[in-house]
Amino acid sequence: MTVKKEQDGKRLTVYIEGKLDAVTSLQFEEELGELTGVEELILDLKELIYTSSAGLRVMLNAQKIMDDQGDMVIRNANEDVMDIFKETGFDKILDIED
């Protein structure tokens, strides 16, 4: 898994590539780091091919943090990842743009 971050003022865009599983979710959580001062978090999943429940947990934790300080949106999720969101009900919890 590869993570790339772009900070623009209070907006943080995180691009995730590869597989997000039990091993790489720890790296993803570290890459997200402190979200202090971030008012808009964008997770761009265009290059994410899979996420496990561990990856979903990190996204949910980020959503909880952002609920208190701003907004979080998920963009460019492919069909396979969207299926995972739908099967787990995360499509109802997370703000996912088409």
SSE layout:
Layout: E1 2-8, E2 11-20, H1 24-32, E3 40-51, H2 53-69, E4 71-75, H3 79-88, H4 90-93
Parallel strand pairs: 2-3, 3-4
Antiparallel strand pairs: 1-2
Helix pairs in contact: 1-2
Strand composition percent: 25-35%
Q: What does the radius of gyration come to?
A: 12 Å
**Helix content bin:** 40-55%
The name of the CATH topology is Transcription Regulator spoIIAA
Fourth-tier CATH superfamily name: STAS domain
Tell me the major beta sheet.
4 strands, mixed
What does this structure look like?
With 98 residues, the protein is of the alpha/beta class. The chain has one domain: Transcription Regulator spoIIAA, CATH 3.30.750. The protein is 41% helix and 35% strand. The radius of gyration is 12 Å and the shape is globular.
Summarize the structure.
The chain has 98 residues and is of the alpha/beta class.
What structural keywords apply?
98 residues, alpha/beta, Transcription Regulator spoIIAA, 4-stranded mixed β-sheet, 4 helices, 4 strands, 41% helix, globular
